[in-house]
Amino acid sequence: FYYRQNYNTIVQVNSFLTPQIILSTYENLGDSTSGGDALPAGSQVGAQLPWRANANLSHQELQRSALGGGGTRSADAYTVNGVLEYRATDKDLIQIAGNYAGKQINAQGYRLPTGVLNMGYQRKFRPDLIGIVAVSDIFDSNRQVTVQDTTNLYGTNYSRVTGRTFIIGLTRTFGGRFVTTEVSSGQK
Question: Are 27 and 15 in contact (CB under 8 A)?
Fold first, then answer.
């Protein structure tokens, strides 16, 4: 469980300069608080399928007295992420990782839910040489939609983080090898 209190929070604020021009500035919002529960989990299905997951459930309150309209804005939010690995052999590893964030509030509106799923394959050719093939954002879903919703401003901003990427790589380690030694004890 956790509880956080932030003082003098700096946030981006949008306002009209003219009917056609919006000014984006940063202002001191005041105080904000959040509290919730971080729930980590992990296990293994058989010898070849380890998994890890984390969920964060929270409640957030933003004091908006510094903004026109003032008042307190509050909401519940959650994020979930997880990793599943498949160890086909001692040299081959397939990994699927994903995360999802639910709707979250900000000073002048909210951000809609967003999620992404990544996948990768790793092959160990030698102890110092590893090949990697990975795809990020498999479903091309990594977009952020932010809604501005105030008494005098309403708008929607669509932004795309990076889009789907495909990576092929080779990693080679030079020097610095880890050496273990056996120590035996017994009688003379």
Answer: no
- For residues 80 and 58, the answer to whether their CB atoms sit within 8 Å is no
Residue with tokens 């001191």: 28
Angle (nearest 5°) at CA 85 between 81 and 87: 175
DSSP state of 54: E
pLDDT digits (tens, 9 = 90+) for 98-147: 999 999 888 788 899 999 999 999 999 998 899 999 999 998 888 889 88
- With 70 as the cut, is the pLDDT of residue 47 above it? yes
Strand residues in the chain grouped as ranges (E) = 2-18, 21-45, 49-63, 72-86, 92-101, 104-106, 109-111, 114-126, 129-136, 143-149, 154-160, 165-172
The type of residue at 153 is L
Beta partners for 105? 110
Q: Which tokens hold the place of 104? A: 């979250």
Q: Which residues contact 50 (CB under 8 A, 6 or more apart)?
A: 42, 43, 44, 84, 85, 87
CA angle 59, 62, 68 (to 5 degrees): 150
